[in-house]
Amino acid sequence: MSDSSSKLNPLSVWALAAGGMVGGGIYTVLGVVIAVSAQWTWLAFIITGLIAIPSAYSYVYLTNKFHEEGGAFVFLEKVNDRKMAGNLSWLLIIGYILTISVYAYAFGHYLSFAFHGNPMLMRLLAAGIVIALILLNLAGVGKLTNVEIIIVSVNLLVLLGLGIYGIVNWDPAQLTAGISPRPVWSSLFGGAAIFMAYEGFQLLTYEYDKIDKPEKSFMPTLMSAVIFVVLLYATVALGATMLGGATSMISFKEIALSIAAETAFGKTGLIVMTVAAGFATAAAINSTLFSTANLAKRIASQNELPSWFDHTNKKDVPDRSIILIGILAGVLAIIGSLSSLVEAASLAFLFTFGIVNWIAYRESDKRKWIPMTGIIIGILVGLALIFRLVISKPIALAGILGLVLLIILGRPYLLRKREQNNENSNEDED
């Protein structure tokens, strides 16, 4: 245990939670959701926010109840569902790999656009940032809390400023400029497609032991951060689209916020947004890579992942996990499409948050309506996403379902093989 002077205070927790969501969220998904929901994009963010808010409550409630870091994996262990804990942990790691790939994809596109680069430069930048952050983590300096807080603060100010400026210059015609208006129910499908924009706050549950007086401060701090981000997303969705126009935001969905900033402020706006996007997505990659590798190490130490993932280097860094997770995410960033990566990650986190809300509902003595709200809206959004994938991306959906089946069937086989190998090794030693 660290002394109190090295603990994360409420302001640090708030900044890291907000940054964990915004760092890659709005930069990567705004153009995707505008294509689906048009003038109802702001409502799409509100709807998915109504899943994120109860989920944040459930994560903090369960973490405080069990007094242990580890998130969904630990929650399931504590309620004696070890098999589901193992299955969900594998799915969660896949979700984080997809998320890192989305952030790397965004990093490459935002910087490439600013330098008038081609697709090759984008791929080199995406791969380069992942490699750089793998090396940074292997060197033992992957978690730079103070630096992340500064990046988050600047990032939030830039986004808030852009959103407010666009709303002040009110022009609702821009919300459907060049496209057909969408019905209000399209907000449900738009929100379903980009739910991963709200992942990130739960990474703070992996840092529970580092938070100062978590029983007192964690709940109000995390809840206020998530609510702020929901409102920020809705503000930016309205303001940025009014500045950039729906057609441009969809045509350049990978760098939608750069389009809005350049339209409003010219070259200066483009430079500011490129710098903000670059630092924000890099910080999001770094924190997600760091937390996912440590999660994999913890799961391996509980015999739910092959012991290969439990290996650490001389700086006590889970080196193998970091390298494998980073490489997989980098490859996906280079070969994948933005909407497919976002939707696959969204499905993984919708399922995970649904499980956490269900556990919180079962374990709660009061305020059961909060996790139940997250469950009900999560089911509606999850069904909408599955329907959307069936219609528009059946191959991607089949791939996701194939991974789930592989986890359910393949995980027990791998773990049995490991146990047999360990038994054989012990017999040889005897």
UniProtKB/TrEMBL annotation:
It is found in: Cell membrane. GO terms for cellular component: plasma membrane. This is APC family permease. Keywords: Cell membrane, Membrane, Transmembrane, Transmembrane helix. It is a multi-pass membrane protein. Its main location: membrane. The chain crosses the membrane at residues 12-36, 42-62, 88-108, 120-142, 149-168, 188-206, 226-250, 270-296, 317-338, 344-362, 369-389, 395-414. One of its GO terms (molecular function) is transmembrane transporter activity. It comes from Christiangramia aestuarii. The keyword Membrane applies. Pfam families: AA_permease_2. Gene3D superfamilies: Amino acid/polyamine transporter I.
